[in-house]
Amino acid sequence: MISENTEAKSDFVAFLSLKENKKVNEQLIKPLVNKFFHSQDINDFKSLADNADISDEDFKSKNFKDFFTYFYKYIVNDIHKNNDEIEIPVTYCITFDKQNCEKKCEKTGVFYDVLFLYNEPVFYFIYIDIKEVFTCLRKQNN
Question: Total structural domains in the chain?
Answer without folding.
Answer: 1
